[in-house]
Amino acid sequence: MLYRSGQLVLRPVVLLLLKCGITWKEFIDLSKLVYVQVATEEFGIRGRPTNVSRASILTGISRKEIARQRARLAATAPVQLDRTDDATRLLSGWHQDPDYLDRAGTPLPLTERGPAPSFESLFGRYGGDTPFQTMLKELKTAGSITVGDDGKLIACRRYHMPVPMSDENIRLFGTNLFDHASTLERNIAGRKGQRRFEGYATENRIRPADVAEFHRLINERGQRFLEEIDAWLHSHRATDPAADARPVRLGVGLYAIEGHLPEGP
């Protein structure tokens, strides 16, 4: 059951990551970092961080790697993933390799074929084992490269993103999923008396003709409810909190449910 639930949780996350061009290797790198962070911060005794040995037992990660990941977390610079996909490696080379830059350091427009500097020669250096035409088509389709009036290829992004999305929308996905998942985890594994409100209503046998009416209902009633909550939150906003009391973040989220769960064992 835990394995199946994990599949369901990861499915929308992986869908977004793939749209952002994050490969499974980069996801492993990110998840290892988060494993160490959570084991360190959430499983300590008497408020102290978990020691390296216990963090290693909890996560299955070696003590040496625990120390390395903790150093990454403690660094002042934001943690960066090592981008590993062929498309991003090619685009990064286009932005960094002096043979493919003009005097101002801007990626040169490239002919599709021919001697260096050309897209063909760039692909030979950084394209990996992806077929040439497959790579070219993918980069064009995603808008990572475009074709200029003179027929030359122009680099539009440094990192490949199969489905363009704004940073704000990606941030909203992360924060909203975090809030909902945190409430679910607290209610399932938390102590009695600390439960947060959480509920849902679903039915597997609704006529397709009634879907539009359902959306009108929740759009109207849901918006009305959220406006009522927003008014309450605004009226209780701490304008001058006590020096020893950090303000609390409160809120509620609503979301529509549509579609059957993915099939699986």
Ranges with pLDDT <50 over ≥5 residues? none
Global mean pLDDT:
88
**Tally of helical runs:** 9
Topology pattern, helix = H, strand = E: HHHHHHHEEHH
**CATH secondary-structure class of the domain at 86-155:** Mainly Alpha
As laid out across the biggest beta sheet, the strand order is 1-2
Q: What's the CATH architecture name of the domain at 86-155?
A: Orthogonal Bundle
**Number of strand elements:** 2
Radius of gyration: 24 Å
State the helical fraction: 40-55%
Shape: globular
Q: Which structural class do the helices and strands define? A: mainly alpha
The major β-sheet equals: 2 strands, antiparallel
C-alpha end-to-end distance: 9 Å
Strand content: under 5%
What is CATH's topology name of the domain at 86-155? Arc Repressor Mutant, subunit A
